[in-house]
Recover the amino acids of this structure.
């Protein structure tokens, strides 16, 4: 292919010498396995490309020869070579764009412009952010998804499906433990599939629908822009807003997406905060449903989690060396989202999520069944019981902390079941909700954490999170009791 | 119109079998297909690479497909006429010299994978500052198609791009399109086949007819 | 020559130079179209700096805005 750009003379000379040199060393060239043209390789060497230089360092002699050529070019140019290369390209690009693009009067789109201004102006922008969070997250996902929809589907399961399953199982399978595997209290269908479809799915579906809407409208980058300063104080930047908001949907997905953050430090803090203090949709949805009748309890839980998020973030910003990542983000125009695209996206995400959780829910059912059958499960639960009692919970809540490890939401769903049976006071609900929110990330999230941050870092995080969650639970319980507060 | 329908059908078949493909994923190394070509989609973040990937392959593999967050390379198969072409979607990159981890992923792919072609996807509104990467891809000796995406938004701003002039200046195929609106996707597919020499280059009269 | 953090809102400015040691930031700014010789308009300062470059908008933090010098 022809060369699109002719660089300033000293650079062209350097390219030519490098090309010659690459050709002359032929087979000995340690860069030869790269499928790039010699000219491109020469340019990358001149721009001190880290990977290519790393490869070059394997051979001292070749490296020295390149360094000599580079110094010669730099001396002739009296200007950093990489800047000169970038400028030549940009100049040519501007020229080409000038020739091939015609500008006419833009179709006036003032509504879009006004909406943009309103959304980023501090006086109107923060209230808009609050309104979106209130209606989008609290009203739509919390009240509609986690309240209304869960009640209906859950009611349908309890009323229609579970009795039928239990009946059929009782008739077909002769052996009680086998019946328990499919039906009854912990069965694959009556527990595993019911949790997945009745409690988790409606919450997650409504959340992803809202998230896709925010995403396609172009609001998310504006959210980053508004929150950058706040996030800087917890060692992150506005860029981390997107993974954090996604984390309110699914922490596992969000942990993957922290990869878009620029510095190692930022990724570490974001991963840590996600696993500690960002409840996923299913989790907070269920908790919201549980605490909905007790506004004071809801406020205590919400306030506490936000405070812990900010405070632990602030501490980790102090603790981990380095500064927050620089924040720069392109702000795309606001658009009216297309319904079809939103539905597709929501569908794709839900499908991913559902296939991710369903096997785990089924496995959890099987494991619980196995554990019950062998007595191992009771042993573990008896180990957790003292902790549950220490934070003021009735002993029969111990299993939900174990479930919580299978899936964040699984634990919350277990809490939901106990509450349905009318077993908990307001104080106990708050304490359990706080501990479950902070408590271990689910298995899927742990897997991703290990993949992204390594086993050691993940182990350290877990070693902090577990005692911390119970400690906070203990303190909250103590505090409420000492003050004589009944929520 | 036909093309559109076909895509829809492919998509629904994929959906139906996805649970099965998922279950058997571990046991399959490679799909039992003869691959007629390897192409990669590259470009800066937020230019709609993933949307185009979905359009070409009918595959919605990206989990978190919101602006600038393709964090992994995804691979899919585009069926164009009777040809099976492997399409690789890459995380955003600004230049051939990588800065971030995502860019490193994309660059390594260009360095190490044997590609028949790269499609450089650019935002029509900001063509001027995206062309430097086009130059770098051309310098690397790759076969490049310039896909000027989001043309609808550029038109709204009163911008008119002249692909023919650009084609002559650059000496590579240029396609103007809007992947989100499914505009120009057909032309892009044709151009891909032409460049893989599965189809004779249409003479200029034909090009006029396509427009 | 003024830092972008000091200029008036709403006026067209020409970028004179980017005073940052951080090559990553310099490259990203270039990718956003903020290069010596290009023109931009500062639209707001709080809670983040917002500039309009050509047909796109970009948000920047204070440190980056302070490293962009305009004429």
């Amino acid at each position: 292919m022809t060369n699109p750009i002719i660089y300033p003379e000293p650079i062209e000379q350097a390219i030519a010498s490098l090309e010659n040199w690459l050709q002359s060393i032929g087979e000995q060239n340690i860069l030869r396995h790269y499928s790039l043209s010699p000219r491109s390789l020469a340019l990358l060497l001149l721009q001190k490309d880290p990977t290519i230089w790393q490869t070059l360092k394997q051979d001292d002699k070749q490296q020295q020869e390149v360094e000599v050529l580079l110094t010669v070019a730099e001396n002739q140019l009296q200007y950093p070579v990489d800047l000169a290369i970038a400028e030549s390209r940009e100049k040519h690009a501007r020229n080409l764009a000038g020739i091939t693009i015609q500008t006419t009067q833009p179709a006036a789109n003032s509504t879009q412009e006004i909406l943009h201004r309103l959304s980023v102006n501090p006086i109107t922008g923060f209230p808009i952010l609050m309104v979106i969070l209130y209606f989008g997250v609290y009203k739509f996902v919390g009240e509609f998804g986690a309240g209304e929809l869960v009640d209906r589907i859950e009611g349908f399961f309890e009323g229609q499906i579970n009795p039928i399953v239990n009946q059929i199982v009782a008739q077909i399978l002769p052996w009680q433990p086998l019946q328990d595997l499919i039906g009854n209290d912990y069965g694959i269908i009556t527990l595993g599939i019911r949790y997945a479809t009745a409690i988790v799915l409606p919450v997650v579906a409504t959340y992803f629908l809202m998230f896709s809407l925010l995403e396609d409208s172009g609001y998310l980058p504006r959210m980053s822009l508004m929150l950058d300063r706040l996030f800087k104080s917890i060692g992150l930047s506005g860029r981390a807003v997107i993974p954090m908001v996604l984390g309110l949907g699914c922490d596992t997905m969000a942990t993957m997406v922290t990869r878009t953050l620029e510095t190692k430090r930022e990724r570490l803090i974001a991963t840590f905060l996600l696993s500690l203090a960002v409840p996923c949709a299913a989790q907070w949805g269920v908790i919201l449903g549980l605490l909905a009748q007790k506004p004071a309890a809801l406020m205590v839980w919400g306030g506490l989690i936000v405070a812990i998020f900010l405070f632990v973030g602030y501490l980790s910003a102090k603790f981990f060396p380095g500064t927050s990542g620089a924040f720069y983000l392109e702000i795309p125009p606001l658009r009216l989202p297309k319904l079809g695209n939103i539905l597709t996206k929501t569908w794709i995400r839900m499908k991913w999520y559902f296939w991710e959780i369903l096997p785990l829910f089924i496995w959890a059912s099987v494991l619980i069944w196995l554990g019950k059958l062998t007595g191992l499960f009771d042993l573990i639960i008896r180990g957790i019981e003292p902790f549950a009692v220490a934070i003021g919970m009735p002993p029969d809540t111990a299993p939900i902390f174990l479930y919580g490890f299978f899936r964040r939401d699984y634990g919350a769903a277990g809490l939901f079941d106990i509450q349905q049976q009318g077993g908990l006071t307001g104080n106990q609900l708050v304490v359990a909700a706080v501990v479950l929110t902070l408590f271990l990330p689910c298995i899927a999230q742990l897997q991703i954490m290990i993949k992204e941050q390594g086993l050691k870092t993940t182990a350290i995080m877990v070693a902090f999170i577990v005692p911390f969650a119970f400690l906070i639970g203990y303190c909250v319980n103590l505090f409420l009791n000492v003050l004589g507060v009944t929520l | 119109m036909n093309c559109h329908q076909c895509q829809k059908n492919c998509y629904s078949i994929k959906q139906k079998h996805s649970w099965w493909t998922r279950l058997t994923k571990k046991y399959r190394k490679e799909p039992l297909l003869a691959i007629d070509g390897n192409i990669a989609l590259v470009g800066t973040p937020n230019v709609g690479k993933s949307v185009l990937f979905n359009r070409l392959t009918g595959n919605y593999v990206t989990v978190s497909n919101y602006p600038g967050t393709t964090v992994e390379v995804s691979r899919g198969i585009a069926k164009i006429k009777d040809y099976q072409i492997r399409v690789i979607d890459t995380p955003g990159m600004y230049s051939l010299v990588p800065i971030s981890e995502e860019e490193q992923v994309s660059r390594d792919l260009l360095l190490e994978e044997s590609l028949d072609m790269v499609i450089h996807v650019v935002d029509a509104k900001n063509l001027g500052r995206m062309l430097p990467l086009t130059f770098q891809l051309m310098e690397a000796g790759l076969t490049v198609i310039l896909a000027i995406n989001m043309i609808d938004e550029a038109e709204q701003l009163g911008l008119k791009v002249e692909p023919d002039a650009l084609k002559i200046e650059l000496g590579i195929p240029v396609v103007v399109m809007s992947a989100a609106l499914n505009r120009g996707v057909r032309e892009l597919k044709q151009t891909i086949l032409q460049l893989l020499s599965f189809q004779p280059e249409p003479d200029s009269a034909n090009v006029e007819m396509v427009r | 020559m003024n830092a972008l953090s000091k200029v008036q809102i709403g006026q067209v400015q020409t970028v004179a130079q980017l005073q940052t040691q951080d090559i990553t930031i310099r490259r990203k700014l270039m990718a956003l179209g903020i290069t010596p010789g290009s023109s931009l308009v500062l639209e707001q300062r709080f809670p983040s700096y917002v500039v309009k470059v050509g047909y796109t908008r970009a948000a920047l933090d204070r440190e980056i805005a302070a490293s962009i010098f305009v004429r």
Summary: Chain C has two helices and six strands. The mean pLDDT of chain C is 87.
